[in-house]
Known about the structure:
It comes from Guillardia theta (strain CCMP2712). Belongs to the neutral sphingomyelinase family. The protein is α+β, with helices and mostly antiparallel strands. It has a single domain (about 35-389), classed as 4-Layer Sandwich (Deoxyribonuclease I, Chain A). The chain has seven helices and 17 strands. It has helices at about 5-30, 75-85, 115-120, 210-225, 235-260, 285-295, 300-305, and strands at about 40, 60-65, 95, 100-105, 105-110, 125-130, 135-140, 145, 150-155, 170-175, 185-190, 270-275, 300, 330-335, 345-350, 355, 380-389. Strands 1, 2, 3, 6, 8, 15, 16 and 17 form an eight-stranded mixed sheet that branches. Strands 9-10-11-12-14-13 form a six-stranded mixed sheet. A hairpin with a 7-residue loop joins strand 10 and strand 11 (about 185-190). Helix 5 packs parallel to helix 6 (about 285-295). The chain is globular and about 70 Å long. Residues about 30-35, about 40-50 and about 200-205 have low confidence and may be disordered. Bound molecules: 2-acetamido-2-deoxy-beta-D-glucopyranose (NAG) (5 copies).
Amino acid sequence: MNDxxxxxxxxxxxxxxxxxxxxxxxxxxxxxxxxxxxxSGPSSPPLAVNVSQHGPLxxxxxxxxxxxxxxxxxxxxxxxxxxxxxxxxxxxxxxMQEVFTMSVFGVVIWGHQRWLVDRMRExxxxxxxxxxxxxxxxxxxxxxVSRFPLTEAVWLPYTDWSGIDMWTWKGSIFAxxxxxxxxxxxxxxxxxxxxxKGRTLHSIQPRNWWLMGLEAFFLHLSSYAVNSCGIYTRxxxxxxxxxxxxxxxxxxxxxxxxxxxxxxxxxxxxxLLVGDLNIDARHQLKAYQAANRTLNPLEDILLxxxxxxxxxxxxxxxxxxxxxxxxxxxxxxxxxxxxQQLANSSYVYVSGSAQVFGLKAFxxxxxxxxxxxxxxxxxxxxxxxxxxx
Length: 389
Ligand SMILES: *[C@@H]1O[C@H](CO)[C@@H](O)[C@H](O)[C@H]1NC(C)=O
Ligand SMILES: *[C@@H]1O[C@H](CO)[C@@H](O)[C@H](O)[C@H]1NC(C)=O
Ligand SMILES: *[C@@H]1O[C@H](CO)[C@@H](O)[C@H](O)[C@H]1NC(C)=O
Ligand SMILES: *[C@@H]1O[C@H](CO)[C@@H](O)[C@H](O)[C@H]1NC(C)=O
Ligand SMILES: *[C@@H]1O[C@H](CO)[C@@H](O)[C@H](O)[C@H]1NC(C)=O
């Protein structure tokens, strides 16, 4: 073995060891220092709606949108987000995915999250919830902005992940939307599940994070190079759906038990879960049905609405001529909460209000795909309204 060969081998080894140490540190710091989601808004929120005791109650207009903003692989993020801000006037609550931040050694080195939160505040979205920034890598990319107070924010990090998502701290965020002191709250969840189209090979044990990390790094990085997010992604997504449901069961279960003790505005009247599930109802029917069973009694609004039989295309990829690129990934799942303890209000979906649609870029030069949209995803809007019980 000659000198230059052995010194380059040494370099490769040193680099691998450094990387592993980094990974280890990242996992250790993230598990030993659980962080809370950041919530903002005036400390004693003015209740924005003057709910008349007579007459119709107002509908709440929701938008959920994957804005396509990863640290690596996207361009003109700021321009496209600026365009989004020009569209948001008519909504009350907006849930976004892929508003990623990138952190190195606990310092955010990249991202448009703060900028976007400020622009949204200028548009009247006084309240927001974001997931914590990790010690290393991308955060979950989630953001909820709202014109009405968001309370009891929760960050639920997923314990199960695969492949390239080792660099992205996927999870979901929840908060209760409080629209007036006479109405019960609506629990809103926003999530972005594991990426990738991989087959189910076996289920990954959540606790084996270090094995998964090694496996993910050495095995899956190569598959990422050919545009995959890892090979176990279907089972990972299903397990993430289960984690969401477990969380909802626990929090909602507790709330319902003490509902009769709570003030009107502290009660719970509905649950809305939105986001990019990365489960393609068009091409992965079995995976979709499994998620649908787990999420029950939450109901898929697009399916309930018979919008393309629940298979509305919400993702067109960068290349719209590639038929595989037409996928249904974005959803809104909803359930009313009715119980005897519920004093006088609950939430219902406003029939006919859901639709999936593209948002055009204001300047074609940075529009995405053939349609020149501002993201590779389409947006999903819907309305939920409080009703007197
Ligand atoms: C709310 O409605 C009441 C009764 O109609 C009215 O007197 C009051 O001025 C309204 N408050 C606001 C802030 O609009
Ligand atoms: C709910 O009940 C309380 C008193 O029990 C009442 O003040 C309030 O106006 C009611 N809200 C609605 C929306 O009917
Ligand atoms: C989804 O779940 C609901 C409730 O369990 C069921 O009625 C419906 O048929 C399911 N839809 C599909 C496509 O599996
Ligand atoms: C788009 O997809 C088609 C079909 O897979 C392929 O032939 C074409 O080269 C792709 N175009 C681009 C710009 O990637
Ligand atoms: C679109 O962007 C290009 C490049 O920045 C610029 O030259 C052009 O004037 C812009 N068009 C419009 C309509 O703003």
